[in-house]
Amino acid sequence: MNNQNLLKGVFLIAIALIFGIGAMRYQVGTFAHAGPGLFPLMVSSFVGFIGLMMMVRSRVLPKIPMDMRVKNALLVLFSLIGFAVVTHFLDMTAGILFMVFLSTLASRPYSWKRNLAIAGVLLGIAYAFQKLLGLNLPLF
To answer: CA 78 to CA 14: how far, in whole Å?
Structure first.
């Protein structure tokens, strides 16, 4: 099974099953009176459906051999860990900037303009969560 498109679908379905089964431990409720398990169950259902569609699509598309890039995976992993550490010691703004600029070293071509746009959108979302939803996020 050396087909990148098929493996992407299988991976998404596996993640959806893990979170969907975990969500079933909580009360789901109804749409009128949602329980704590409804949202994660819905999201995992959507992710599972996308994974299924990717698997079906992989039957039509030409096979692409799987290319493992350990360096890129480690960059993304360290950027997520760094986000948590920088946010803990400084603030979330610095953590988001650290995460975006480190994780995008894994992409080609590298673009600092794109990084600024991504960081701006993520900071905007965090600011909206802080102001509109009243979440206690350590911004600025």
So the answer is: 23
Domain of 102 in residue numbering reads as: 70-132
For residue 138, being part of any structural domain is answered with no
Q: 24 to each of 20, 110, 126, 135, how far by Cα in Å?
A: 6, 41, 28, 26
What are 72-115's pLDDT values in tens digits?
Answer: 889 999 999 999 999 999 999 999 999 999 999 988 888 899 99
| Residues 34 and 74 both lie in one domain | no
Assigned domain for 102 exists: yes
Q: DSSP states of 39-53 as a string? A: HHHHHHHHHHHHHHH
**Phi, psi for 29 (deg, rounded to 5):** 75, -155
Q: Model's pTM, two decimal places?
A: 0.65
Give the pLDDT confidence of 17-38 residue by residue, as tens digits. Answer: 999 999 889 888 887 888 888 8
CA-closest candidate to residue 5, choices 79, 46, 62: 62
Is the pLDDT reported for residue 54 higher than 90?
yes
- Whether residue 19 is contained in a domain is answered as yes
- Give just the sign of the alpha carbon dihedral 110, 112, 117, 123: positive
